[in-house]
Amino acid sequence: xxxxxxxxxxxxxxxxxxxxxxxxxxxxxxxxxxxxxxxxxxxxxxxxxxxxxxxxxxxxxxxxxxxxxxxxxxxxxxxxxxxxxxxxxxxxxxxxxxxxxxxxxxxxxxxxxxxxxxxxxxxxxxxxxxxxxxxxxxxxxxxxxxxxxxxxxxxxxxxxxxxxxxxxxxxxxxxxxxxxxxxxxxxxxxxxxxxxxxxxxxxxxxxxxxxxxxxxxxxxxxxxxxxxxxxxxxxxxxxxxxxxxxxxxxxxxxxxxxxxxxxxxxxxxxxxxxxxxxxxxxxxxxxxxxxxxxxxxxxxxxxxxxxxxxxxxxxxxxxxxxxxxxxxxxxxxxxxxxxxxxxxxxxxx
Length: 349
Ligand SMILES: [Zn+2]
Ligand SMILES: [Zn+2]
Hints:
Elements: H1 8-26, H2 33-38, E1 55-57, E2 73-76, E3 82-84, E4 89-97, E5 100-106, E6 111-115, E7 117-119, E8 126-127, E9 132-136, E10 146-153, E11 156-158, H3 183-202, E12 230-232, E13 235-238, E14 245-248, E15 251-253, E16 260-262, E17 267-275, E18 279-289, E19 292-301, E20 303-304, E21 311-312, E22 317-320, E23 332-338, E24 341-343
Antiparallel strand pairs: 1-2, 2-10, 3-9, 4-5, 4-8, 5-6, 6-10, 7-9, 10-11, 12-15, 13-14, 15-23, 16-22, 17-18, 17-21, 18-19, 19-23, 20-22, 23-24
């Protein structure tokens, strides 16, 4: 986690570089921050994917160290596509970090990072610009495949697109062609997603509950919906897909896709729909249990076999574990509301 923390002074520096970059474009005679960003980097640079890939999400550093942001750029690609070194250097990391393949190429004072990538060259290999270092894996952009490409100097994150401008490299070199950059539309999608959450939460039934003693977790007769270990608990975390610090608003069970999801307690299906973030989602209203109106939410399923209005018994199969929506692998994301308030599922189950 620590590696994602950016001291606010560094962020100010990065923002300043961004401002200066705009100034530099308007007035080429001004001090050249792009050259500063590239200092120590060989002249020739390459896109890390063949051709001139679409930038589907731009660099958007957080305004504060815990803030929401995107510490690199996402380039559209297909699974198995060759991942290329953006410049000459030495591979300094090739391995798994938080469940995904990450590669780092050291260029001296700068490092470029690539994920999710399956390495084909080991640490210590010297590479030239455009040389294949690995193959692109799925998982960074939800159901679409993309390469998250980063540029770092020390602990500070820079915009990898800074590598490109003013280059006279071969066709396909960064900056030699047109960028197709859609950060504004992506920002809108993220904003909409964030707005959907309270809207969805507002539809969670809360009537009938009281505010009496909660009682011990596990004492209410609820069973786990899948027999699998918890791979990520409820709480603040660095989101592997969105690359922001946010509340992980449920409990993840690491079950294989296709594993039956069993109703943890009797209830009535109150909603079933697809959400870009939660994937295939189903809400089960358990009514008032031990004084609380209890609703469980099931997310990322491949499919459900019950629908709105269906009454289900405890233990009945309601659907199958999947990886729909913003998800990096097969799992069940379980959510719980008590009297309309989202809680840590493990405080009740
Ligand atoms: Zn990314
Ligand atoms: Zn989750």
